[in-house]
Amino acid sequence: MSYYFAIIGTRDSPIYEAAIGNPLKDDGKHLHQFVLHAALDFVDDAMWTTPNTYLRIVDKFNDWFVSAFVTAGNVRFMLLHTAKNEDGIRGFFGDVYELYIKAMLNPFYEVNAPITSPAFDVKVRTLAKRYL
Fold first, then answer.
1. Deepest in the core among 13, 25, 31, 43, taking most CB within 10 A?
2. What does the DSSP assignment read for 63-132?
């Protein structure tokens, strides 16, 4: 399976991005970014209609689905995927949220700055292998 995961900050800029598994076809990274950013409007609309942080599938583009999770600070976790796996995606978002909070607790991290930690990247990819 192929996935493209991104954490989008409060200023609608990517904080963290990862292509997980086999590359999503041959359309390129920029198309994946475009699809996720196009779905931000749907995420913004959906987050006001439900009290849940996990918004499920918010958009569909061709054969790809966009699932989203919104933190209490309005940071969006977005996953571009081709197969429906609601329980796995929910677990993945929950555990990545814990990692994100731990990264935010670092006194040297600035809000909305890119997360460049190799340890964070390894842990996200490990969680993806477990849940997705």
1. 43
2. TEEEEEEE-TTS-EEEEEESS--HHHHHHHHHHHHHHHHHHHTSTTPPTTS----HHHHHHHHHHHHHH-
Element housing 21 (H / E): strand 14-21
Distance CA 39, CA 68 (A): 9
pLDDT digits (tens, 9 = 90+) for 12-32: 999 999 998 876 555 666 888
What's the rounded Cα separation, in Å, for the pair 125 and 6?
A: 12
pTM to 2 decimal places: 0.92
CA angle 67, 48, 39 (to 5 degrees): 35
